[in-house]
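Allow me, if you will, to draw on your knowledge of protein folds for a short while. Thank you for your consideration; the sequence and its tokens are set out here:
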Amino acid sequence: LKAHWHAQLRPDSAAQPARLRIAAMGKFTTDCSLQARMHQYQIVGRAAPTNKNPVPKIYRMRLFAKNKVLAKSRFWYFMKKLNKAKKSGGELLAVNELFDKGPTKVKNYGIWLRYQSRTNTHNMYKEYRDVNINGAVSQMYSEMAGRHRAHPNTIQIINTATLKSSECKRDHVTEMHDNKLKYPVVRKMPMVTKNLRSTFQARRPMPSFAEARRPLLQVPAVRGAGCRQVVGVVAR
């Protein structure tokens, strides 16, 4: 144990984790545990057959969870509320992960949910835009944690649906339905070499290469209030 502890404290690259070695080289990676990436599962199960009930009722649920283990735990959470069946007294018939048909097209999603706050139980309806339902549910969990301080275990998703543009109600979703919607094209400019950098420059930053090619007219220096100013004007 002591040898293992000293190996963890060694500064060489062999003892450091891969994440720390990448950060030391100047590259930063995001921690996957900080991203609530959800998956959609379909679980079919029932209570174990008994002499009193040889053919128990079969339940099929569509659940969202980070992995298959948590999805099974969520399934038995609802089964215990429905018919008092728990994991030790039940059986799973099928566990499948569901995927969207068009994961490259942006769609509108509506989510009906219920969550438990510090004082009461609340029903909610939310809308999101994403390429698949897993991303929309991930946005919902992040928003509920930030805006409402809702713990993920207290959130119950009642239903999800893909909405048409005419069925959307929330402003942050409907404002994206304009066919004439435009965004400024911002391109990254190459960084100037260190020997040519300056603290002040008589030229405003150009967001695109097209504007950067236009000639720059230098205005003569103007003295005023004990300082020197140099103004750059872009020719139109």
Observations:
- Residues 108 and 129 are 5 Å apart (CA to CA).
- The first strand starts at residue 39 and ends at 47.
- Confidence is low (pLDDT under 50) at residues 1-25, 214-223, 225-236.
